[in-house]
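Q: Give me the 3D complex with beta-D-fructofuranose.
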Amino acid sequence: MNRFALIVIAILTVALAGCADKQTSDETTKQFVIGMSQCNLGEPWRVQMNKDLKEAAAKHPEIKMIFKDAQNNTTTQQSQVKELVDQRVDLIIISPKEALPLTKPVADAMDAGIAVIVLDRRIEGNKYTCFIGGDNELIGEEAGRYMVELLDGKGNIVELKGLMTSTPAVERHNGFMKGIEGSQIKIIYSVDCHWLEPDARREMASALTRFPGAGDIDAVYAHNDPSAHGGYTAAKLEGKGRENAIKFVGIDALPHEGVAYVRDGILTATFQYPTGGSEAIETALKILNGEEVEKDIILGTRVFTADNVADGGQAL
Ligand code: FRU
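A: Here is the predicted complex, encoded as structure tokens.
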């Protein structure tokens, strides 16, 4: 082989190696890493959210998910978001425990050029890429109107609230107040139960002691189904049969939780609060592929009562 032929072979080899390299790097750029910061996995609804995210992501082989569980600790969640930024993930999905303390970590991620989808609970302001969640104000208002109908416009209610430093609790409260406006329904006891069933059980036991008469409490409005169930359990444990006289209304409507409670006659009604897991993945892909998305994506709700539970509830 003469020297000219050797040079040609050498040039071709280098060129082909370049092509091969390019091919691999093209494939690499198609892989996306999404970091998910979940505020806790102690509640069935959040386990369901992660399951929905995983199932939706599994349909897209180009997505790799990293899940972090803050175990209901705000400081842990703040540092986990920072870790995801330091890891240079392509996009962050966060379901924040509280609004204010998670606002800066989200802003820092945005400043670092990482898109952020805020899921279910909001942060303060609008420095995020996209918010996805249910309309908590509307759910609260529907629950209020339902209560007016249920109690014929008059009665005493115990409100077992969600964590009031998280936005759904504030919105579910405000919406409910709107829903009962103009009626003779009174909230006689209203307390922060932090979304937790044990707290709701304890607070409901206090309410029952404070209002001991058989007809003192007509209904319980709980901001989520675990709290509604906690309220029911406290009434049952009191041993005076008041769990049958008091109507319990909750929010979430997971099939194996709230909907089952309605079927079993424990709750009078529950309002669905969708996890938004699959919507978050579909939206993440759009963002990662450079498409425009809506700033706020609001999900619908359904009400489940004894009358419609067999038919899958009713859309609102
Ligand atoms: C779970 C949960 C749900 C509730 C939601 C509000 O942590 O408490 O029960 O609907 O969070 O963000």
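A quick observation: Confidence is low (pLDDT under 50) at residues 18-25.
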